[in-house]
Amino acid sequence: MIAKPLDDSLRAIVGDTHVITDADVRATYEVDWTRRFSGTSACVVRPANTTEVAEVLLRCSDAGVPVVTQGGNTGMVGGGVPRDREVLLSTVRLDNLHEVDAASAQVSAGAGVTLSHLQNHVRLAGFDFGVDLAARESATVGGMVATNAGGIRVLRHGSMRAQVIGLEAVFADGSVVRRMSGLIKDNAGYDLPSLLVGSEGTLAVITAARLRLVPPLGVRAAALVGVDDAQAAVSLLSKVRDLGTLAAAEVFFAEGLDLVRAHTQLPNPLPAAYPTYVLLEVAARPDPCDEFVKRLSECSEVRDAVVANDVAGQQSLWRYREAHTEAISAEGIPLKLDVSVPIAALAELVAALPTAICAVTPDARLVLFGHLNEGNIHVNVLNAEDCAELVTEAVLRLVSRLNGSISAEHGVGRAKVGWLSLTRSPEEIAAMRAIKCALDPKCLLNPGVLFDDS
Ligand code: FAD
Ligand code: 2HG
Ligand code: ZN
N or C: which end of the chain has fewer CB within 10 A? Predict the structure, then answer.
């Protein structure tokens, strides 16, 4: 599968055991989490440090062989799996995690460190990390930077971009750039770390990140609230947001809850069923719970609510939201469209989606959920394998008409390449292509991701 001279050089760089050519072992790297995207790699290479990454990229560049970078392989848009005999560079061994720098509230982490490892590490030092998401056991620092991951704490701390102070990365030709000193103020020219955040592996391989830490959330309370519809959810959010203690605001609907309950055997969270559910969490010092409960009792949108101020109770409320992805996957391979619209248009989007999708395929099963505060809805469509393109077109055009984005947090990957122009102007796409050509002139990094092959 791979020419002998390149195979020999890769083995010389990372060692025999870290160049995987066996088809059965490669297979786990060659299909994505959703099972929707797969391909074949020439081999899987697992470098142990930045020098090895640089040498691997240099050899591949000399041989003209494309490279796909993979972290935890939890991405949802097919960006981290090979298509056709690329070298797959896995970052699993870049798992160096430095001591927390308490004076600056920062930490340096290798690209292959998982989110849960990072969280446990910084919590032991009295800090927390500002991004959290349900794939925490597998998603890596490098993958989260490369996708500018969002998740459940964006309303409090921003997305991954807001946590990145500096990066170390290797360009396609093997040259290394490093900005890891932790300077908050450093305005000397173009900010390369910012450019690499969200670049989806198309500009460089990120090898390490210097990350901002946040104070622990403090005392928390979570409420699962039943409301009438998406408009009521938006209106409720606006009434609790000004408490100043909100730490999460998530939304899901009756279909999703039914699916989660069928999959997990969890009981009904509230005595009656409601069309729409909002999961709110507050966190602060001093204890924000009483004020939160009082505010909820004053909101006419609340039809019923269960409040948890103990950790176990909060975790069980979160389970209803976080189990959506696995419950949907247990039913089949969904078409996943992660979109955002201005919050004022959220209710219109939620109301229009069933009609738009039904017009393409009446048999589709639609499950919606997402991050309420950012107008970010995860549109999951089951039974749409045969008409995925048409459904994608219908949903993304609707989103574009509502001034939304075709990708809120998962990226463009391979999944949405054909629709980039719905969200980015020709001028923006031309500028992005110019950057790609300047940094990766042979187009060897993640070909087919973000841009089509032309
Ligand atoms: P991978 O899947 O391995 O790769 C993703 C992309 O990043 C690919 O294009 C890959 O080439 C590139 N990449 C990976 N590592 C590097 C590197 N070191 N250098 C350069 N490029 C690299 N995402 C959210 O934003 N918010 C959520 O709330 C959220 N929840 C999720 C819940 C579940 C259950 C699952 C399965 C996924 C969820 N995701 C979410 C999606 C996913 O976890 C994120 O996109 C995550 O950032 C991917 O990290 P990873 O290490 O798995 O990257
Ligand atoms: C989430 O918010 C993730 O749970 C996954 O972004 C979304 O499964 C999905 O569509
Ligand atoms: Zn999400």
Answer: C
Q: Give CA–CA dist 291/282, Å, rounded.
A: 10
How far does residue 325's CA lie from ligand 2's centre (Å)? 6
Q: Is 338 helix (H, G, I), strand (E, B) or coil?
A: strand
Give the pLDDT confidence of 62-76 residue by residue, as tens digits.
999 999 999 999 999
Tokens 């609230």, residue?
Answer: 225
In sequence order, the 6+-apart residues with CB closer than 8 A to the CB of 451 are 202, 417, 420, 432, 433, 436
Give ∠ CA 400-414-147 in degrees, rounded to 5.
Answer: 80
Q: Is the CB of residue 135 below 6 angstroms from any atom belonging to ligand 2? A: no
Predicted structure pTM score: 0.97
* 325 pocket-lining for ligand 2 (C-beta < 6 Å): yes
Statement: residue 6 has pLDDT above 80: yes
Q: Which amino acid is at 346?
A: L
Average pLDDT (344-371) is: 97
Which residues 6+ apart lie within 8 Å of 133 measured at CB? 115, 139, 149, 150, 151, 152
Ligand 2 close to Cβ of residue 136 (< 6 A): no
Label residue 2 by pLDDT band (50, 70, 90): confident
For residue 143, how far is its CA from the centre of ligand 1 (angstroms)? 5
DSSP code, position 99: P
Q: Are 115 and 123 in contact (CB under 8 A)?
A: no
Average pLDDT over residues 154-158: 97
Which run of H or of E encompasses 369? strand 365-371
> Mutation test of ligand 2: which of 132, 369, 380 has the most ligand atoms closer than 8 Å to its C-beta?
369
Are 47 and 96 in contact, with CB atoms under 8 Å apart?
Answer: no
> From edge to edge, which strands make up the β-sheet containing 205-212?
106-110, 205-212, 164-170, 176-178
User: Could you tell me the pLDDT band of residue 52, with boundaries at 50, 70 and 90?
Assistant: very high
What's the mean per-residue pLDDT of the chain?
A: 97
Ligand 1 mean position, distance from CA 32 (Å): 10
